[in-house]
Amino acid sequence: MTTITLPLSIASYALLSSYCLCGGIFEHLSVFRGWLHVHEPRQLKALQSASGYGALYTYVIPKAALTFFNAYLLVTNPTGIYERTRLGLKVGLAMLLVSWTSSAFIQVPLQLRIQKTGDPALVKRLERTTWTRTVAMVLHGCSVGWILMGAF
Asked: Is pLDDT at 140 greater than 90 in this prediction?
């Protein structure tokens, strides 16, 4: 039987990354697509407000923690972190920054406009443009998988 030793910091990073990957995919495939079926502006505004606060606590805050943890691991270089892991962390951080940039300049402004106007056309645009951050989170997940494969 082979024993694999993984630093606690990397195991924690992998678990938080997995959680955030699932949250990003869920938000894209379930939440925003669900909004497409609401055509009444008043209801759409209410739905966006309610689900926006839910996403803040269940996805945005953990993703922010993941971003800071990723940067922390790169800066502090804890024991047991190999060059392969550092490269994976750099790629992961780059993908998180792509996701955050897309959120800040495209998705959040669209969500704020939806909250104010309830315009269903904006929901279609939001659903189309959120692919950028979804793909970035998937690539981040791939970088984590690559890090973990180095442990075997």
From this structure: yes
